[in-house]
Amino acid sequence: MVPSHISLLAPIFALIFLLSMLLPTVHAAPISIQPLQKRASLNDAHTGGRGTFFFPGLGACGKTNGDNDMIVAVNQAVFQQFRDVICDNKSMEVRANGKSATVQIVDECPGCGPNDIDLSPAAFKVFADESVGVLTVDWNIF
């Protein structure tokens, strides 16, 4: 013999089951899966940028530099993302015209594009005379 409380629950469960069959079926919307994007890294190589020169003074890292210092300013996006690391004596290797030079990053360049840099006059002269004005440069931070 089935206990009375169980026999009373059986019709309720049957009704719940039938109602659930009548409810519309919910379908999830399809999603597109995008490949993972590599996060920007301070050590990424940058190629095909514009290299120009500027006359240094007080830089965004709070240090004052002059024309004869081997320094560079990087674009604002790179500078802002990695400011703390950059302002802790970070250097980069710059390559142009078959030559290379190591320069210290001390400033940001508001007018520079993603791969562009602004060199001090001393650093620019490693690659060309200032009269050239603009170089095609490759660089990486280390």
CATH fold-level name of the domain at 45-141: Barwin-like endoglucanases
Helix share bin: 25-40%
- Specify the biggest β-sheet: 6 strands, mixed, barrel
Question: What is the CATH top level name of the domain at 45-141?
Answer: Mainly Beta
- Name the poorly predicted regions: none
Silhouette: rod-shaped
Taken as a percent bin, the fraction of beta residues is: 25-35%
Number of strands: 6
Radius of gyration: 31 Å
The appropriate CATH architecture of the domain at 45-141 is Beta Barrel
Could you give a short description of this structure?
This protein has 142 residues and is of the alpha/beta class.
Walk me through what this model shows.
The chain is of the alpha/beta class. Helix content is 25%, strand content 29%. The chain has four helices and six strands. Strands 1-5-2-4-3-6 form a six-stranded mixed beta barrel. The radius of gyration is 31 Å and the shape is rod-shaped.
Key terms:
single chain, 142 residues, alpha/beta, Barwin-like endoglucanases, 6-stranded mixed barrel, 4 helices, 29% strand, rod-shaped
Layout of helices and strands, plus pairs?
Blueprint: H1 4-22, E1 45-53, E2 71-75, H2 76-81, H3 83-86, E3 91-96, E4 99-109, E5 117-119, H4 121-127, E6 135-141
Parallel strand pairs: 1-5, 2-4
Antiparallel strand pairs: 1-6, 2-5, 3-4, 3-6
